[in-house]
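Reproducibility note. Readers wishing to regenerate the assembly model reported in the main text can use the exact inputs given here. Chain order matters: entities are listed in the order in which they were concatenated for prediction.
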Amino acid sequence: MAKTLAERFRSAFVVEDRWKLYFEGLGNTLLMSFFAVLIGIVFGILLAVILYTNKRTGKLKILSFLSNLYVTVIRGTPVVLQLFIMYFLVLVSVKSGILVGSVTFGLNSAAYVSEVARAGLESVDEGQMEAGRALGLSYTKTMVKIILPQAIRNMIPALFNEFIALVKETSVAGYVGIIDLGKIPGIIQSRTFDYLFPLLFASLLYLAVVCLLTVVEKYLEKKFSKGDRKLVYKKRFGGKKKCATH
Amino acid sequence: MCNTLTHEKEPLIKTVDLCKSFGESLVLDHISASIYEGEKVVIIGPSGSGKSTFLRCLNMLETPTEGSVFFEGEELTHASNLDGHRKKMGMVFQHFNLFPHLTVLKNITLAAVDARLHANRKQKAKLSKKQIVAEENEKAMTLLRRIGLENKANAYPATLSGGQKQRVAIVRSLAMDPKVMLFDEPTSALDPEMVGEVLSLMKELADEGMTMIVVTHEMRFARNVSTRVLFMNEGKIEEDGTPQQIFDAPQSPALQSFLSKVL
Ligand SMILES: Nc1ncnc2c1ncn2[C@@H]1O[C@H](COP(=O)(O)OP(=O)(O)OP(=O)(O)O)[C@@H](O)[C@H]1O
Ligand SMILES: [Mg+2]
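Running the prediction on these inputs yields the following structure tokens for the assembly.
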């Protein structure tokens, strides 16, 4: 005898307060993604600056060799295996799965961010570094105050692509017992023998997170595009706003 | 023959056997030259003769392969405080190289504030960062008023015309109170109607006694403003004299043929 949709809905959300499970999972996914993005940005940009500096000045030979090696290894192996390696071999003593997940996904993301950031750095005109140095600013100061702000502006779309992929990728965390959003439908199905609403709702929540990220992206793009020629053109001539798609 | 008095002083900038190669090609070939305080030196020469490379070696944007560059008597190739020396050598580029993500005002004050903070750290009577920023902003506004662009202080460079950009770039260097200004074809990227405003600002600086080294194809500027003209050819300074000597009595065939093309 087939259950009505209303019954299926009830067992997916209402019975035993199951709706809370989705939000618990969402919380864990967000927590992991947030720290992973943070680690990814900081470490990824650091790698990119090392590689860029080596290319432009010939300095930092050893560091840049190590950075290259790191990027190659991370990009050349599946993230699930990286997660296993961290969980079962490297960070065995760490009790919090969320922490292991954050670190693993962050270190993984850094490799991809470094490629994006390097392209961003290289898109900045060489004259900018020269102008900064000619004014007596140190290499580091010029990098931080002049090159990076322009590079970041150029890399925001690609960076957010990476973050959106990352949020969804954290769903493999279920393999090592982390109760993230991707794991929830399975848990609920094992009690109700019904996947329909659990899968729909979990997907909906992922979608909401990604949409939220897109809103942040648009905001940052606007914020960083101060002085952008295209924007100036828009302001001056009131041209139609073109949606940045990628 | 000119400036015999000042020549008894130490030169402000001196190169000794300066060489620069890119790979196999020798772009600067044992250049020894002295530039004294107050001189307005114009460098002319055919394309590819090494003018830009020479200028860029003076503040170490290019590292010489051989020889030395002295600034105020100090060797720059081994200077521990290269950034400190660079603060005293303004440089103006063909393509302006303003910082597009910063307002005009911030373009002018960024390095100046940084320099002041740096100096401040070494002094006892400490000024707050706020005070320094306020002072530098005031100074930048004075410079902007001087070039008639005070209303552009909070604009971004993309909203300026080429001539305005280059004049902002010049005052950006002036904000550092440099001892010498290096110009690399400052008007070459400008529309013809904007060349005049930049050249007249440069002439003003010259009249105020600023030491200047200018690579340019503007022969009228060279003749009217400079105290000395260097003719570069194939990585060497082939002739070095007053504008009258260079333009009215060129010696070498290379200079004669160059002048016949550009005049
Ligand atoms: N970074 C570089 N790498 C390789 N070769 C270079 C580099 N910079 C300059 N050169 C070469 O050095 C030579 C001299 O260049 P430089 O720019 O100093 O000439 P220039 O006199 O300023 O010419 P122009 O009037 O065209 O600006 C040229 O042949 C140029 O191709
Ligand atoms: Mg040149």
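We highlight two features of this model. Chain A has one domain: 5-237. Residues 234-246 of chain A have pLDDT under 50 and may be disordered.
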